[in-house]
Amino acid sequence: MKKTPFIDIHRNLGAKIIPFAGFQMPLEYSGIQDEHITVREKLGVFDVSHMGEIWVTGPKAMPFLQYVTSNDVSVLFDGKVQYSCLPNGRGGIVDDLLVYRLDEGKYLLVVNAYNTEKDFNWLCEQGKPFDLVVGEELLNASDRYGQLAVQGPLALKAMQKLTNISVVDMPYYMVKKISFAGIDDVIFSTTGYTGAGGCEIYMPAEKGPEIWQAVMNAGKEYGIKPIGLGARDTLRLEMGFCLYGNDIDDTTSPIEAGLDWITKFTDDKDFIDKDFLLKQKEEGTDKRLKGFIMIDRGIPRQHYNLVDVEGNRIGEVTSGSVSPMLKKGIGMGYLKKGFWKTGTEIFVEVRNKLLKAVIVNFPFYHPETDK
Amino acid sequence: MNIPDGLKYTKNHEWIRVEGDEAYVGITDFAQSELGDIVFVEIETEGETLDQGEAFGTIEAVKTVSDIFLPVSGKVLEINAILEEKPEIVNKDPYGEGWLIKIKVHDPAEVDALMDATAYQQMINA
After folding, report:
1. Would you give the DSSP letter of residue A171?
2. What structural domains and CATH numbers belong to chain A?
3. Neighbours of A288 (CB within 10 A)
């Protein structure tokens, strides 16, 4: 079992530790709901060092990424980050990821922990026609980095105390290499998977504990708390963000998953599965990932059946929980054609009972207006 | 971990407190701590007579769903009404206000055979 640079800190804080994607990770500290609300209202710090970091560099980097990712890499400029996915050549998804452009010919891919090896092998295979030198131009550097996500409306304000470079006014999805908490060459991006705003910070693994302490000290006056994987999951679900392994995988297409917005069919971009996905986009799909809120009292869980008013199976829950902000059961799942329109009433089979729910648009919770 | 004397315990982490031929049933401090934030308690067996070890309801935490089992055979007389609006009371006060059901005990010998506080402590330490 792998450990992140922060494992001793989690233990000392009394976190509940669980195995996750081959790592010992904190599930919760003060409680999932308390942590969730802290991130929505103030700020929290997450150890996300399990995420994979893969460098793609050199003159072939851009055309290679244009071919293996679904989004349009050509629109990236230095300091810009993009959400994307890796189509798998069979209409499914290898992984979803962030593509960072640090410099011309210098890209950082941040991938799901569980998929890091699979992704790297896939990229090495696809990189052959591009003559990318594995270990140099294509480099799995995951073990070298510690990563923290500091998320919440007060996150950037608090983190500004740790650097002379202006970060409070950084727009969403930007990246800078900065001196942070006295450590040089920290990668600082205004990204995250909570919908609460904030940043993600990549540092040399050995500097991790020092930076954790600095982050906690800087956030203290704003009420910072450590946040575990439990709240990370409820926060992303409340925004309708996909979790690989639950909502998307090797058998679901980006179009079916509602990821059309990161699948770009521009003329000068050829990419894996382009023709297949374009056909899906134009002709429609048989199923589509949608969100629903419970009307009856109950909590949808992964793999529960979704049925229509006559009891016919129309899909399955891929992610489900209770929304700590809405205090209602929320879920996502693939719905059969004819049942995914917003406002459609569906039923969730919970312990042999059919509980009513309604299809809604994402996000479930709007941080700016639902407060 | 709080394990009061005077209660009896099951391997499924329920407790039972006998008062005459009736008894209160709940989950232990250890159980609530393992479950995390409890968000929904569903018990629909009021008035039913159940066997020892039969599920009488379900507890939903944010991440998990768990059945809850009757420590001894008996009839479910009452469900704690507070749970409807405040399921989190089970986290805060599992042996007091967070009790789950009141039952009529059919066979006191079944109660005697359950673990006492010391035995339960040993079990969760093991």
Report:
1. P
2. 1-284 (3.30.1360.120), 286-365 (2.40.30.110)
3. 19
Judge whether B34 and B52 are in contact, CB under 8 Å. no
Chain A partners of B59 at a C-beta cutoff of 8 Å?
A: none
Per-residue DSSP letters for A128-158? GGGT--BTTTEEE-GGGEEEEEEESTTHHHH
Give the mutation candidate from A18, A294, A322, A323 for the B interface (greatest B CB count, under 10 A).
Answer: A322
pLDDT digits (tens, 9 = 90+) for B61-115: 999 999 999 999 999 999 999 999 999 999 999 999 999 999 999 999 999 999 9
Contact indicator for B33, B56 with CB cutoff of 8 Å:
no
Domains of chain B: 8-107 (2.40.50.100)
Contact (CB<8Å) B37/A299: no
Counted residue by residue, chain B has a size of 126
The ipTM assigned to this model is 0.90
The pLDDT assigned to A371 comes to: 59
Asked if B60 is an interface residue toward chain A (Cβ–Cβ < 8 A), one would say: yes
Chain B residue numbers with beta carbons less than 8 Å from the beta carbon of A234 are 62
3-state secondary structure at position A30: coil
Q: What's the pLDDT tens digit per position in A194-245? A: 999 999 999 999 999 999 999 999 999 999 999 999 999 999 999 999 999 9
From the CA of A139, how many Å to the nearest CA of chain B? 36
Residue A28 sits at the chain B interface (C-beta within 8 Å): yes
- Which of B42, B62, B91 lies at the smallest CB-CB distance from A321? B62
